Amino acid sequence: MRKLVLLGAGYGNMRIMLRLLTKDLPTDIEITLVDRTPFHSLKTEFYALAAGTVSDTVVRVPLPEHKQLKFVEGEVTEISPDKKCVYLEDGQQLEYDELVIGLGCRDNYHDVPGAEEHTYSIQTIGKSRTTYEKLLGLGGGATVGIIGAGLSGIELASELRESRPDLTIKLFDRSPRILGDFPERLSNYVQGWFDEHNVEVVAESNITRVEAGVLYNHEETIPVDAVVWTAGIRPVTVVQNIETEKGNSGRLVLNKYHQLPKYNDVYVVGDCADLPYAPSAQVAEEQGEQIVKVLRHVWNEEPLPEKMPEIKLKGFLGSLGKKQGFAYLADRTVTGRIARLLKSGVLWLYKRHNG
Predict the structure, then answer these.
(1) How far is CA 259 from CA 34, 165, 269, in A?
(2) Are the C-beta atoms of residues 9 and 22 closer than 8 Å to each other?
(3) Domain coverage including residue 197
(4) Can you give the pLDDT at residue 122?
(5) What is the DSSP letter of 176?
(6) What local confidence, expressed as pLDDT, does residue 108 receive?
């Protein structure tokens, strides 16, 4: 049997399984999926789990079942492309013919002293639960600092405001205006929502240190009762330990077939891949589509295409609580109830196709 090993049940590997586990899958292919949890987690919804507006059953999707698919629950501790082997924490060793690395990311603290020790995270379902427990336990009038005003920070701040109207929420943004890389109309709408709902956006911030109960923004000290870090990501440690060329924030440099240049039997999908796009579920799924096509060429002993299609992104959708949202689609800005319904619809379709 030819062994395909998938590391991580994230968006990229879910798309790969969706496309491979059909009647067209060659009978001599054995697929092994490795993950620390026996389900797929909707990472794009972790902000709502941390804010306490959904239960974790809402952000879980069952893994596919197929006679040629085996699931291994465990923690990956080492990946050896030279030996074509993956090592797990419990001592298991998984050999492979092809490997897809989709182990995701961890927070990038940018060497800010105290950030890792004194902030909470929404990078995994377990960390999001811990963050929820901390935020749930805060008393009325407590101050929550959210570091990073990207999509995750915006959605967490707005969802937390609806969940806990009694909290003081400060959202720290390095840019002069929120979502500064996008049209001003979009920025103004999001800023207006925060103004109306009493969420303070601290523009042009620079968090230089985090201590228990204190944030340092430039030279100013700000008392806080809890801090959630949403200011960037980097690949997990086991991926950064692979001896291969690294790019931005330690992500792995790939060839046009999403393979490691020195190891053409190793593919990388999602947040670990060094691509000219911001990491997102959408990028991971588009990568997954292309990796499936490459794998089928390899298994059929066919030459790979000289040119791979460019990944074309459709835009993004964001929520402002449960009733309002914003979107940037095909260079057009959509705001309000329609944008929120669009996001809910996309999530419903995703769960329907994968669940």
Answers:
(1) 19, 48, 9
(2) no
(3) 109-231
(4) 98
(5) S
(6) 95
Same domain, yes or no, for 185 and 239? no
Same domain for 175 and 101, yes or no, is no
Q: Are residues 136 and 283 in the same domain?
A: no
Predicted confidence (pLDDT) per residue in 235-285, tens digit = 999 999 999 999 988 999 999 999 999 999 999 999 999 999 889 999 999
Residue 294's nearest CA partner among 252, 267, 257 is: 257
Which position has the token pair 């968006």?
A: 11
Tell me which residue has tokens 């620390």.
36
Tokens of 5: 């090993």
Same domain, yes or no: 140 and 197:
yes
Three-state SS for 187-240 is HHHHHHHHHHCCEEEECCCCEEEEECCEEEECCEEEECCEEEECCCEEECHHHH
Same domain, 137 and 94: no
- How confident is the model over 153-180, as a mean pLDDT? 97
pLDDT at 354: 86
* pLDDT score for 246: 95
